[in-house]
Specification:
It contains two helices and 40 strands. It is mostly beta strands. The N and C termini lie far apart (104 Å).
Length: 497
């Protein structure tokens, strides 16, 4: 298959002075479509050399199939908008298994509608086009693209409404799905990514960054499933503004700093759709005034596991659930870290909410004066603690039943160790200097996470500085197996008379 060059073969101007719209459109039209009869001369790759290419009208790549559009790199090949506002820069319509990469899309300080729009348009199919005519967009790849929506960070400066849009064009709502997006960088747009296609299924966003946009990913019109993997966000309103979703959403192993919210789900799709958040780090000094890091609406279930939330200036990040239909929220293995002096529950349920909340093995850190080292275990394995305040006269240790939580800090630490049956085997408290250690019990070994001591005994201690209480030893649950005596249960043989 042949490769074509936008400059050498079609006369595009890489200086940024002349208008390259017509040349680039001719190059796109020369690429293969799903109706192409392939020969060795069929153009399946368009190369756009390094340079700045001035565009004054929307570029449209229609019905592309198994073809590529590649620049020399997202810092080397730039498509710069020079047309009117409220237009799309580049539209991919009904493309299938195509790849676009290594380009820089620059809105040039003009409020365009979108910088790249990935669309399905079924108008021709509905008007009687022959069977097999291209009408769906699926399995496309966008990679190594940069989107610059504005020339200025100043408030009120013109900016692109959307960086990347996944949308339905004319005709009926049909599939626009299973796309692969990797290493995208989107800055200074209204919405970094806008999904308005209800049949958008199973797309993957991998190692993408959205910076200084109002929202990172925004969904509308019962938009479908996607998986966000890795990458980074810094947004003004919400990293994920999920207004309406009809399928599963997974957000995993990403980082975010100084965003207004992490997830905002103000809409109701009318369906139950699962949301899974796992392995993420969300740290914000820009948390909104209501301190609701997540607002979860009327869908679910929600699974939030293995994340770190916090680092907010005098605010405590909370999860607000206002589900009016039966739903479930499961929190497990998360760390809630705050500089707030008030040790409050991170989950806030609206009055009348029908959401059932389950919390397991989470840690809640506060940073205020006169807070208890270990407040209480509201759920299995949960523990609340403060790292900068000294222990008060009496510290009530929490009594989880299946997990030990270990925490070190400069001036206070607590260790809990448990046996397989969930019984506390050892506790060590240390307050400033010197440390105060609870009675090590049998064997004389100091109970620590690595050396909980011998036996299953409960430990307690009382000093002038600290009073602590732990679970007493539970009686053994072992059941003695009864061994029948010899001959028991045997039938006597009948003897002949």
């Amino acid at each position: 298959m042949a490769s074509i060059d936008a400059v050498a073969n079609f006369g595009a101007d890489p200086s940024g002075v002349g208008d390259s719209t017509a040349a680039l459109q001719a190059a796109l039209d020369a690429l293969a479509t799903r109706q192409t009869t392939y020969t060795p001369a069929t153009a399946t790759e368009l190369f756009i050399p390094p340079g700045v290419y001035r565009i004054s009208a929307t570029l449209v790549w229609g019905a592309g199939a198994s073809a590529k559009v590649l620049g020399a790199g997202k810092w080397c090949t730039k498509l710069r908008w020079a047309g009117p506002p409220k237009r799309d820069m580049l539209r991919l319509v009904n493309c299938r298994t195509v790849s676009v990469g290594c380009l820089n899309l620059d809105a040039n300080g003009i409020a365009v509608s979108s910088m790249l729009s990935l669309e399905t348009d079924t108008t021709a199919f509905q008007q009687g086009a022959p069977q097999g005519s291209p009408f769906t967009s699926t399995m496309n790849e966008l990679h190594d693209l940069s989107f610059y929506g504005s020339n200025s960070m100043a408030a009120g400066a013109p900016r692109a409404a959307v960086g990347l849009r996944i949308a339905r064009g004319g005709g009926q709502d049909t599939h626009n799905d299973y796309h692969y997006f990797r290493r995208l960088e989107i800055e200074l747009c209204g919405s970094g990514i806008l999904i308005t296609q209800g049949q958008q299924k199973g797309s993957l966003f991998e190692m993408c960054n959205v910076n200084l946009c109002d929202s990172g990913v925004r969904t509308q019109n019962l938009a479908g499933a996607f998986h966000w993997l890795g990458g980074f966000m810094h947004t003004n309103q919400a990293d994920f503004n999920l207004e309406a979703v009809a399928d599963a959403v997974v957000i995993s192993h990403m980082g975010s700093e100084n965003s207004g919210r992490f997830i905002d789900n103000p809409g109701d799709s009318g369906n139950g759709w699962p949301l899974t958040v796992i392995g993420c780090r969300w740290a914000s000094d820009g948390l909104v005034a209501d301190q609701r890091m997540m607002r979860l609406g009327k869908c679910g279930p929600y699974q939030i596991k293995g994340n770190t939330f916090g680092w907010s200036d005098r605010k405590k990040p909370r999860i607000y659930v206002y589900a009016s239909t039966p739903s479930a929220l499961e929190l497990e293995g998360n760390n809630f870290d705050s500089s707030d002096s008030v040790d409050t529950d991170p989950v806030e349920l609206r009055v009348g909410s029908l959401c059932k909340v389950s919390k397991r093995r989470n840690t809640y850190r506060t940073n205020g004066a006169n807070r208890t080292m270990a407040r209480r275990a509201e759920e299995v394995g949960d523990i609340h603690y403060s790292t900068t305040a000294a222990l008060p006269a009496v510290a009530q240790l929490p009594l989880p039943n299946d997990l030990g939580i270990h925490r070190n800090s400069a001036d206070a630490r607590v260790y809990l160790a448990f046996n397989d049956a969930g019984i506390v085997k050892g506790v060590e408290l240390a307050v400033l200097q010197p440390p105060v250690v609870i009675n090590p019990g049998p064997g004389g070994a100091i109970p620590t996470p690595m050396n909980p001591g011998s036996g299953d005994s409960g430990y307690s201690a009382s000093t002038s500085a600290v009073k602590a209480r732990v679970l007493p030893k539970e009686p053994s649950r072992r059941v003695k197996k009864e061994i029948p005596s010899r001959g028991a249960g045997r039938k006597k043989k009948k003897t002949a008379k």
